[in-house]
Amino acid sequence: MLLKITNTSKIAGLAIFLGWQDVRQSYRRSSIGPYWLTIGMAVQIGALAVVFGFVLRNNLAEYLPFVATGIIFWTFISTFLIESCQAFIAAEAIMRQIPLSPWVFVGRVIWRNLSTLAHNAIILPFVMLLNLGALNANLVLELPAIFLVSFSLLPLGISFAISTARFRDLSPIVISGVGIMFYALPILWQPSLLPEKIAFYLLGLNPVYHCLQVLRLPVLGKIPTAENWIGVIVFALLNWLIALALLKMSKRKLTLWL
Fold first, then answer.
1. Does any domain span residue 61?
2. Helix (H), strand (E) at residue 248
3. Of 62, 110, 186, 214, which has fewest CB within 10 angstroms of its CB?
4. Which segments in the chain show pLDDT lower than 70?
5. Residue 71 falls within a domain, yes or no?
6. Which long-range contacts (CB under 8 A, 24 or more apart) does 127-134 make?
7. Which of 243, 249, 245, 248 has the alpha carbon at shortest distance from 87?
8. Hey, is 186 helix, strand or coil?
9. Is residue 10 part of a domain?
10. Residue 157 belongs to some domain of the structure
11. Residue whose C-alpha is closest to residue 126's, from 23, 41, 33, 30
12. pLDDT reported for residue 41
């Protein structure tokens, strides 16, 4: 048991180190580094909130925080899904020479995106100034929510990385699917706009929606529903079962596919 904990901590430590190196290399010699992403994100949120706020006739003080949380957390989820497809392919040279755990390379991707999320989260306090009444003790649920969603996405990233190593066409399919899902999820529109029956099929059965709600609602001063928490937990369990099965099947073939 102690050996497993030690191995897990080593894998996590290496994944964090590689993730930090990716962030540092991406913005080497840049004056403000990853904050360029934060500036771009802030401009995008402001533009979308103003345009769709007028189109949908929403109160900007309430709509801007809704859009900001939706875009920031959706960017975290969607970017991880897209980048995880290339996790093993990008690390081909390392995987062929050093027998490292596959979890290192997907952990690297999720840590890189958690770092970006932390930078983008700087926007949220300024946005919430428009709606200070929404800030309350429910905000303490945000850290458990981030942990639970990351825990559910990590094995999904492994499944995507293995599948893409074997079938290279999966990556553009995931990119297209993520693009479509942006409009199918309540990022720019309120879930209450949908009829109850359609909302059940489009949102209630969509685990990514529950991940988004679990991340978003505490920042907006609300408590995610039991359905949201259960949806994410079931999503995590299924992802772990599939990932472990795929790892077992591809253990000896993975480097041959790269």
1. yes
2. helix 226-250
3. 62
4. 1-8, 17, 19-20, 22-24, 26-34, 131-135, 258
5. yes
6. 127/45, 127/64, 127/65, 127/68, 128/65, 128/219, 130/60, 130/61, 130/64, 130/65, 131/61, 131/62, 131/64, 131/65, 133/221, 134/65, 134/220, 134/221, 134/222
7. 243
8. coil
9. no
10. yes
11. 41
12. 81
**DSSP alpha helices (H): ranges in 200-225?**
207-216
User: Which residues neighbour 75 within 8 Å (Cβ) at sequence distance 6 or greater?
Assistant: 41, 116, 117, 120
- Give the number of domains in the chain: 1
Quick one: CA dihedral 45, 183, 150, 103, positive or negative?
A: negative
pLDDT of residue 194: 84
Q: State how far the Cα of 121 lies from the Cα of 126, in Å rounded to an integer.
A: 10
DSSP letters along 58-114, please? --HHHHHHHHHHHHHHHHHHHHHHHHHTTHHHHTHHHHHHS---HHHHHHHHHHHHH
Dist. CA 146–CA 137, nearest whole Å: 16
Fill in the DSSP letter of residue 167.
-
Residue 150 contacts by C-beta under 8 Å, 6 or more apart in sequence? 110, 114
- The DSSP code for 225 is P
Q: Which residues span the domain enclosing 90? A: 34-257
Write the pLDDT tens digit of every residue in 223-233.
899 999 999 99
pLDDT tens-digit series, residues 78-90: 999 999 999 888 8
Q: Would you state the pLDDT for residue 177?
A: 92
